[in-house]
Design brief:
It contains six helices and five strands; from the N terminus they run H-H-E-H-E-E-H-E-E-H-H. Helix 1 crosses helix 5, helix 3 runs parallel beside helix 5 (about 150-170) and helix 5 packs across helix 6. Helices cover about 50% and strands about 10% of the residues. Strand 3 (about 85-90), helix 4 (about 95-105) and strand 4 (about 110-115) form a beta-alpha-beta unit. A five-stranded parallel beta sheet has the order 2-1-3-4-5, sandwiched between helices. With about 190 residues, it is an alpha/beta fold. The protein has one domain (about 5-185): Glucose-6-phosphate isomerase like protein, domain 1 (Rossmann fold).
Length: about 190
């Protein structure tokens, strides 16, 4: 298989992402994030494996826009409280460690948002499910990309689009991202 075929497959998945009715879910999540942070809440993000890398990229963007955001499980992650929000990324929504994180977080009364490829799954104790199409590692349909790459690509694009919408809606986020960009252009490196 050559690169052209692989890119065509990715483009087909992106078309599905465009067709999906994500704006309402995105707008709800944006309002939750902004409201939580206005009330001194923190944003926690978690995903296992490659979904975790997507989560870490999202946390980096949130921090660059001035939000108090953390990837769950890092040594510098603070304790979670009721006023915080947890955003989980899981292609199947059934990863054992993710289920444990949901259980513990719900006991602590956190609001939980799950980004998954199959929102029809009966995922208990989640306040909002956001369905992002994309083949996961548990699907048997053949793909030219390995394991869950298509879900991860779509999740990354969705979350980066979410950041763009947050920047549009939050003057504070817009100011912070502009400040980071100026520092980067001036110094060539990020200095916070």
């Amino acid at each position: 298989m050559d690169f052209e075929n692989i890119i065509e497959e990715i483009e087909k998945e992106l078309e599905k992402l465009k067709e999906n009715k994500l704006n309402d879910n995105a707008n709800d999540l944006i309002q939750k994030i902004i409201k939580k942070c206005e009330n001194s809440g923190k944003i926690f993000v978690y995903g296992a494996g490659r979904s975790g890398y997507i989560g870490r990229a999202f946390v980096m963007r949130l921090v660059q826009t001035g939000f108090d955001a953390y990837f769950l499980g890092e040594s510098s992650t603070p304790l979670m409280h009721e006023k915080d929000i947890l955003i989980l990324i899981s292609g199947s929504g059934k990863t054992e460690v993710v289920e444990k994180v949901i259980s513990i977080s719900k006991k602590n009364n956190l609001e939980i948002v799950m980004i998954t490829s199959d929102p029809r799954n009966k995922i208990r104790n989640v306040d909002q499910l956001i369905g992002i199409e994309g083949k996961t590692k548990t699907e048997t349909e053949i793909s030219s990309l390995p394991l869950g790459s298509l879900f991860e690509i779509n999740a990354f694009i969705f979350l980066d689009c979410l950041i763009t919408k947050i920047i549009e809606e939050s003057p504070k986020a817009r100011q912070n991202i502009e400040k980071v960009a100026r520092k980067y252009r001036k110094n060539g490196i990020l200095v916070f």
